[in-house]
Amino acid sequence: MSESDYQVAVVGGGPAGLTTALYTTRLGHDTVLIDRGGGRAAMMQDTHNVIGITEETSGNELLQTAKAQVESYGADTVRGMVSDIDGSAGSFELAVGEEMYTAERVVLATGFADERPEPPLPRTGRGLHYCLHCDAYMFVDEPVYVMGTGESAAHVAMIMLNFTDEVDLLLRGDEPEWSEETDRQLRAHPVDVVETDISGMNTGEDGWLESFEFEDGTVREYRGGFPMYGSDYNADLADALGLERTDDGNVAVDDHGRSSVDGVFAVGDLTPGHNQVPVAMGEGAKAGIALHYELRTFPKSLDEIDGEQVDPASTPAISDELREAARRREAVEPTAADD
Fold this sequence. Notes:
The protein has 339 residues and is α/β, with parallel strands linked by helices. The protein has two domains: 2-113 and 231-330, FAD/NAD(P)-binding domain, CATH 3.50.50; 132-227, FAD/NAD(P)-binding domain. It contains nine helices and 16 strands. It has helices at residues 15-26, 59-72, 132-135, 151-159, 180-187, 236-240, 277-295, 302-305, 320-330; strands spanning 2-11, 31-35, 76-79, 84-86, 92-96, 99-108, 112-114, 144-147, 167-170, 192-194, 198-203, 209-214, 219-221, 224-227, 231-233, 264-266. Strands 1, 2, 3, 4, 5, 6 and 16 form a seven-stranded mixed β-sheet that branches. It has a four-stranded parallel β-sheet with strand order 10-9-8-14, with helices on one face. The radius of gyration is 24 Å and the shape is elongated. The two termini are 35 Å apart. 33% of the residues are buried. It holds the Pfam family Pyr_redox_2. Residues 6-284 form the FAD/NAD(P)-binding domain. It comes from Halolamina salina. This is NAD(P)/FAD-dependent oxidoreductase.
C-alpha cells in the first residue's frame, strides 16, 4: 500500500464536504477529498434555494463545478470508497483500495440515503421528491400525494395544504402508525387518506408523473409528491470511530461540526438539522474555519515561543504544493465564480 499524508481528509463529495475542503485548502491546509460518487445532491434534476445558482443547474453540474474549484486551489480529490478507518495512532489512517491516506483531522460528510417505497414509482425529480423545503413550491395549485404511514407522513400531508388544496396521503395498503392525537389532527384537515395500494402509473412524454392507478380500480391524478419512509444514514465510518449518535441516527456534533471523538468532524446530512444544500454549505464553512483554528501554525503561543523569536525562515507555513497552486491561480485572471 502506498501512503499519502495530509492535514485534513474529507470523506464525502456533496455540498458539505466540498465546502469544507474548499475552506481548509484556501486557509492553507493540505487536504484530500475522498468521494465515492452519487449521493442525494447528485440526484437533483434542478437546483432550488441556492442563491446565485439558477434552477436549471443540475446537481451533477453543481458538484462538478465545486470539485473543479477545490482542485484549482490545490486540494487532492480521490474517487473511491473508504473501506477502513483507524484513529488509534494519534492520526487517522483511511484505506481506499490499495491506497492509504493519513490525516491529522477527518471530516465525515457521508450523508444518508432516502428509504424508497416499493414501485411503481415515477422518476426522482419527475414526480418523486424527497425535499419538502426545496420542492413544495413546485406544486402550488397542483394535485400532490404523500406516501407513508408514520408521524412525518401525516404532518407533511397537512403542511402541503399551504401550497395546494389537493393533497392525498397514500398508505399503500399498510396500517397507519401515527398517534391518536395526530390522527384527530389529520382527520380535521382536508387531506384524503387513500388506503388501497398502487397498481400502476401513468407518465407524460416528458417523464413527469400524471397519475397513479389503484388496486380498487380508481385513477388519481398527481403532479408529484413526497415519500416519507425515513433515512438510512451512511454511518459505518462514524461507528467504526465510536462517534456518538442521536436517537434519530444522526452523528452528534457541536455548532462547528466537532464530534464526540477528538479530531473527527461531521457535516451535512449526516448531522442533525435541515437537509438543505445551503445549510450543508454553511456547516462545511464553519467546520473548515474551526479546523483552521486547530491546525494553523501561527500565531505561536507564549509557551511555544518561550522568550525566543520566531524564525522568519519558518514562514509562510503553507506547504509548497499549496503555494504553487496559489501562484498558478494568480497567473489566471480571476472571475466571479472563483470563490
